Amino acid sequence: MALALFPLVSFLFLLPTSSVSQTVGNITVGASLFAVENSSWISPSRDFAFGFHQLEHNKDLFLLAIWYNNILEKTIVWYANGDKPAPRGSKLQLTSDQGLVLNTPQGEQLWNTQSINGVVDSGVMDDSGNFMLLGSDSILWESFKNPADTILPSQSLDKGVFLSSRHSETNFTSGKFRMVLQSDGNLVLTTINLPSDHLNEHYYDFNTAGNSDQVVFNESGYLFVLRENNTKSILTSVVTGSAKDFYYRVTLDFDGLLILYSYPKASNGDASWTTVWSQPDNICIASKVTTSSGFCGFNSICSINSGGRPICECPKGYTLLDPTDQYGSCKPNFTQTCEKEPAAVEDLYDFQVLFNVDWPEADYALLEPFTEGQCRESCLQDCMCAVAIFRSGDKCWKKKLPLSNGRFDTGLDGAKALLKVSKGDVHVPPLSPDFPNQEMKKKDQDTLILVLSLLLGSSGFVNFILVAAICLGFYFIYQKKRKSTLPQNGGVVESNLRCFSYKDLVCLLPFEGGLSSMYTEVNEF
Ligand SMILES: *[C@@H]1O[C@H](CO)[C@@H](O)[C@H](O)[C@H]1NC(C)=O
Ligand SMILES: *[C@@H]1O[C@H](CO)[C@@H](O)[C@H](O)[C@H]1NC(C)=O
Ligand SMILES: *[C@@H]1O[C@H](CO)[C@@H](O)[C@H](O)[C@H]1NC(C)=O
Ligand SMILES: *[C@@H]1O[C@H](CO)[C@@H](O)[C@H](O)[C@H]1NC(C)=O
Ligand SMILES: *[C@@H]1O[C@H](CO)[C@@H](O)[C@H](O)[C@H]1NC(C)=O
Ligand SMILES: *[C@@H]1O[C@H](CO)[C@@H](O)[C@H](O)[C@H]1NC(C)=O
């Protein structure tokens, strides 16, 4: 026992001397880094560091990573062991035959630079953010050819090399989004079905099909696909500055957006990253897959928040399966059974009405021509029916669980989702003949808002025209909706509909109810 403990004890004694290690320049074979605070190798200009990043949620776990060394906001551009964080005291060593090798204190290998073909002479953290292993006359391995979720200026990705998102801002486990240069030369953004590698239908297509070789992010901050005939298919529309003055990076963010960020070098490191370009504009509408849940988890609804980022929310009566994963699936908090129910279905279930919400790909029946009343009744009496989408005035789509591809979309031809919920869980306002007017006055005073966000990625005059057109459109749609839905649903505060443009195109509607549940409150119209 004492013998077995000895190596561990002596190892712990050694730790303090090597805990703060910052080497600049060439790394020689045999050099090592330990997974402790502030342990890194710095590039000559000090712009980039390669080393161990302490995870936020567990201070005893470390990520082998590359980050900007001169800015305060820790921004990681490459990482090796997202799926296998290194326990405190793990050791990274530069070896001549295997390149970099990362071992736990117990000697278990967590990661290494695979397929080294030759003898490693030295390692270099260079000023472009590339960590390279050099042989006598060639580069044997480089982080630029083994990217994580980010591509840096002067980096290029060959066919077959992809960017893979992280699970969340601070959780570096593999996420489900990928940027892939397909064999047909088309650059796409797509999701995979974790934990497998199955690629779903892409949610964004850069339309670069042809004989394309590489995705290039050049020194000036332009992202393009380079074709065999040496022509470029430029993806990023604008770059507003010189790479001498700005750090640029293109990151496939954890929420699936591919974003070109810039950061002014001439700051004290306390500036922040600015979005220069981003795709897709509305990932909720862009993504529709047949063999997965879509952007959000099952039964969830995707929408774009006022900051232009996609969010996922469970409808009322549904709760997150994993309370810590807001992008995950939602479960109904009641079970609908096809056995004999304890009471009449009318007493057990009601409908939550959600405007402009749909779950494509979960249909099992289309009934038409049907009135909304018939649609409700049919879903109510049908023990298979989880939600009915009443659309286009006479179409009733019945859908089964799990619901997939949930999204908020104003382009659904007045779609109304009738979501079956257990009656105990919904507050149904009593109907009275004078209900609409009285309720409307009260609602007028409430200042909570519904954000109807349409991301159109345009600007200036075009944007203004679109704002005007869409405001007008909404106005009429809601006018119409009010007339057709008032009997069950109360009143629309259409006079308060306001549209404006800041980055994207956004309409605001003051509503009763919670801001966080923008759709679920729509039924309070
Ligand atoms: C670092 O390695 C490169 C390539 O082997 C070499 O040209 C350079 O002189 C080395 N620099 C230092 C400071 O040793
Ligand atoms: C690591 O660096 C930070 C900032 O330079 C410093 O505040 C902290 O004390 C250092 N930690 C250790 C263990 O050296
Ligand atoms: C990171 O996310 C993965 C996937 O959901 C999860 O299994 C893991 O526990 C998370 N890690 C931490 C430390 O939260
Ligand atoms: C280069 O190739 C692309 C497609 O592969 C084609 O559209 C384009 O016309 C070609 N350009 C030249 C100059 O050959
Ligand atoms: C990067 O690409 C853009 C667009 O083709 C070009 O204008 C610029 O000169 C390129 N920069 C470098 C350093 O090659
Ligand atoms: C179901 O969810 C609603 C809120 O969404 C909650 O008020 C209700 O208590 C839940 N019911 C059960 C049985 O968990």
Automatic annotation (TrEMBL):
It holds the Pfam family B_lectin. One of its GO terms (biological process) is recognition of pollen. The keyword Transmembrane applies. This is S-locus glycoprotein. It comes from Corchorus olitorius. It comes from the Eukaryota. The keyword Membrane applies. The lineage of its organism: Eukaryota, Viridiplantae, Streptophyta, Embryophyta, Tracheophyta. PANTHER family: G-TYPE LECTIN S-RECEPTOR-LIKE SERINE/THREONINE-PROTEIN KINASE SD2-5, G-TYPE LECTIN S-RECEPTOR-LIKE SERINE_THREONINE-PROTEIN KINASE RLK1. Residues 1-21 form the signal peptide. Keywords: Disulfide bond, Glycoprotein, Membrane, Signal, Transmembrane, Transmembrane helix. Residues 33-146 form the Bulb-type lectin domain. PROSITE patterns: BULB_LECTIN (PS50927). The chain crosses the membrane at residues 448-478. SMART domains: B_lectin (SM00108).
